[in-house]
Design goal:
Helix 7 packs across helix 9. By secondary structure, the protein is α+β, with helices and mostly antiparallel strands. It is built from 17 helices and 13 strands. Strand 3 and strand 4 form a beta hairpin. The longest helix is centred in the N-terminal third of the chain and has 28 residues. The two termini are 43 Å apart. The protein has three domains: 165 residues, Poly(a)-polymerase, middle domain (Orthogonal Bundle); 153 residues, Beta Polymerase, domain 2 (2-Layer Sandwich); 192 residues, 2-Layer Sandwich (Alpha-Beta Plaits), CATH 3.30.70.590. The radius of gyration is 25 Å and the shape is globular. It is an enzyme of class 2 (transferase). One of its GO terms (cellular component) is nucleus. It catalyses: RNA(n) + ATP = RNA(n)-3'-adenine ribonucleotide + diphosphate. Keywords: ATP-binding, Magnesium, Membrane, Metal-binding, mRNA processing, Nucleotide-binding, Nucleus, Transferase, Transmembrane, Transmembrane helix. One of its GO terms (biological process) is RNA 3'-end processing.
């Protein structure tokens, strides 16, 4: 596609070239000590284990390409020289991953190997490795991925086919010519690694950037706004925002970057886009972000644009609700960091977790259930990917000010003694003595020991796996509701959401379930409420009538 209409944006102009004061350096030292208290750094042994796992994955990739090459009739020596290369990206490549973080990994292979080979032959090879668990493939995703745990380390494994007869050992992904002949899914996959490398190249000081980014990531997770799939910002978007502030203050230290970050983001004139460098024009005929040409790009609420060709918006999932929530959090944090920089408050105050289940009077509870753990991994992932669409539908309802999705699904395993119990649990309930938080280190025997069952009950019980998602509902005040409509009609959003789930080609109504229901804060599961803080409960200005189908729908 011709790029003549693509705007060229100015590079970041530094706001200040001042270096840090002794006091600001002390605050940076305090920040570092605080981050250590949150166990954000892996040990040397954990780091070594990750390196070893990546080496093993590299060996699997080499065997994979050799196997495909031989299946296509390639001579043995030529097959051995076909080549493959593994790249890491995301938080691991940025150097800001924690001990329990996943490793984003890219497998680049030559032109005679296809994505179909990756999701069949590679998947089968991984499935036969004893050290690999929780293996699932999402070939139809926006960025196709194989998810797994390799020796307990979570890995997101993506692939890209290059139009090269073989892959050289010194392959440089920064060369735009490599994109020639790639389909869009391969471009999206390979750009994950290209973006990460370019961010590191564009920041003035990598150590300062890393420390500031660790702090911002911790803050975003504690405030439950770290989730691209839920309509907030994902890892690459947070990294680009921090990199932008580092460019604006290139000589200063991490404490100043963190403090300035919140003020800059709270005052940012969205939808003015965030760029780390001018957009590039490329010789590859592919679409890149351009709000002057594409209406969908004009609709982006908080555009943060990737710094490699083809430039894309990393925040297209942001909704009106999630934008409002994030802007409120930026403002709150800007006030806290002012006190921290003045010596009035400690860094820990910035990282206080949000009490999501004490924030609203009304919630939607979405429960995905399956009869096998492996099926549940895929089914719950599919449902999670649709929550944002539900939020968009809820935003259209007159009485609602915003819909706030919780960042995580809550996983449980339940041991049922009847079909009635299965139905009860699949519709969002639990049985105290036989419902447990999901723990992959425990076996069926371990759970049996926790329950007081007769021999007959033990033989007849069947597991049901659930993942439950929550959406908090905030209502407009009477003065902000032009029609004074105090009735929330959930029938249409529920029907549309359940329909979206039902069309999944792997859906099986005999083994899988999905239920959505409205609940009040007073009926939330007790383990979610914690110490109820009444000052956080947002009471409606007048009573709200919620209309939904008489019973929770189940497919």
């Amino acid at each position: 596609m011709p790029q003549s209409n693509v705007k060229q944006w100015d590079a970041t102009t530094p706001v200040s070239l001042d270096g840090p004061s002794d006091y600001e350096l002390k605050l940076t030292d305090d920040l570092g000590k605080t981050l250590i208290e949150y166990d954000l750094f892996e040990t040397a042994n954990e780091s070594s284990k990750r390196s070893q796992v990546l080496k093993k994955l590299d060996e699997v990739a080499k065997e994979f390409v050799y196997k495909v090459s031989r299946l296509q009739g390639m001579p043995e020596e030529e097959a051995k020289g076909a080549g493959v290369k593994i790249f890491t990206f995301g938080s691991y490549q940025l150097g800001v991953h924690g001990a329990d973080a996943d490793i984003d990994t890219l497998c680049v292979f030559p032109q005679h190997v296809t994505r179909d080979h990756f999701f069949t032959i590679m998947y089968d090879m991984l499935n036969h490795i004893p050290e690999v668990s929780e293996l699932t493939a999402v070939a139809e995703a926006y960025v196709p991925v194989i998810k797994m745990h390799f020796e307990g380390i979570p890995i997101d494994f993506v692939c890209a086919r290059l139009c090269l007869p073989s892959i050289p050992k010194d392959l440089d992904l920064s060369d735009n010519q490599l994109l020639i002949g790639m389909d869009e899914k391969c471009i999206r996959s390979v750009n994950g690694a290209r973006v990460t490398n370019e961010i590191l190249r564009l920041v003035p000081s990598v150590p300062t950037f890393r420390e500031a980014l660790r702090a911002i990531k911790l803050w975003a997770k504690q405030r439950s706004i770290y989730s691209n799939i839920m309509g907030f910002l994902g890892g690459v978007a947070w990294a680009m925002l921090v990199a932008k502030v580092c460019q604006m203050y290139p000589k200063t230290c991490a404490s100043v970057i963190v403090a300035r970050f919140f003020h800059i983001m709270a005052d940012w004139k969205w939808p003015q886009p965030v760029f780390l460098k001018p957009m590039e024009e490329g010789s590859v005929p592919t679409r890149q972000w351009n709000p002057d040409v594409y209406p969908a790009d004009r609709a982006h609420r908080m555009p943060i644009i990737t710094p490699v060709f083809p430039s894309m918006c990393a925040t297209h999932n942001v909704t009106d609700s999630t934008k409002k929530i994030m802007m409120n959090e930026f403002l709150r944090a800007s006030q806290i960091v002012d006190d921290i920089m003045s010596g009035v408050r400690p860094w820990r105050d910035l990282f206080q977790p949000i009490d999501f289940f004490c924030m609203y009077n009304h919630y939607l509870q979405i429960t995905a259930s399956s009869k096998s753990h492996k099926t549940q991994l895929q089914w719950a992932g599919l449902i999670e990917s649709k929550i944002r669409q539900l939020v968009l539908q809820l935003e259209l309802l007159e009485p609602l000010e915003l819909a706030h999705s919780f960042m995580h699904g809550i996983e449980k395993v339940h041991y049922c003694l009847s079909n009635e119990e299965q139905w009860y649990i699949a519709h969002g309930h639990s049985i105290d003595s036989r419902s447990f938080p999901m723990d992959n280190t425990l076996t069926r025997k371990d759970y049996v020991r926790k329950m007081k069952l007769t021999i007959e009950q033990e033989r007849s019980m069947t597991p049901l796996y659930t993942t439950t998602f929550y959406v908090g509902l905030k209502f407009k005040s009477v003065k902000d509701s032009p029609t004074n409509n105090r009735k929330l009609d959930l029938v249409w959003p529920k029907r549309e959401f359940l329909k979206m789930a039902k069309v999944w080609d792997k859906f099986n109504p005999d083994t899988m379930g999905i239920a959505l229901r409205h609940i009040k804060s007073s009926t939330l599961p007790s383990e979610l409420k914690g110490a109820l803080k009444q000052e956080y409960i947002k009471s409606a200005a007048s009573p709200i009538a919620v209309v939904e189908t008489p019973k929770s729908e189940r497919l």
